[in-house]
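Annex B.
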Amino acid sequence: MTELKMKILELLKEDARLSADLIGTMLDAPVAEVKQAIAEMEQDHVIVKYATVVNWSKVDDEKVTALIEVQITPERGRGFEGIAERIYLYPEVKSVYLMSGAYDLLVEVQGNTLKDVASFVSNKLSPIDAVLSTKTFFILKKYKQGGIIFEENEDDHRLLVSP
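HTH asnC-type domain-containing protein: predicted structure tokens.
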């Protein structure tokens, strides 16, 4: 990975809307080189998606998100890969991570209601033969995601009262 590509990735990570022209100016690099580097990284799946971070609590969309710790028995010859693939193919699943520690996979699931998430766990996830146990945690509020703080604390403008 070239130094130019690393710098481009850092800039795009902070703001995916930056144009190649602006990136070229910011990095003092020719625009054609910047465009070529971005095209190569997209083709090589280094850049896989340009996304928007949304503070869903500000929108009238009452989605429920849960993190599920999953203990599994690895498959012979494939390890965790086959089971992780089977899990991440469900549309409710937003993320799957292989973890170190007390459990093997961390699965992020989103549903319309608590009942939807519970149904996913009991009817789709738990019945998988390799799944030994699950532990579900519902997200009540997001304070920060992807380095972005959702709600800044407002300064308290009240006068201090002292005894």
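The two ends are 62 Å apart (CA to CA). The longest strand covers residues 64-72. Further annotation is deferred to the next reporting cycle.
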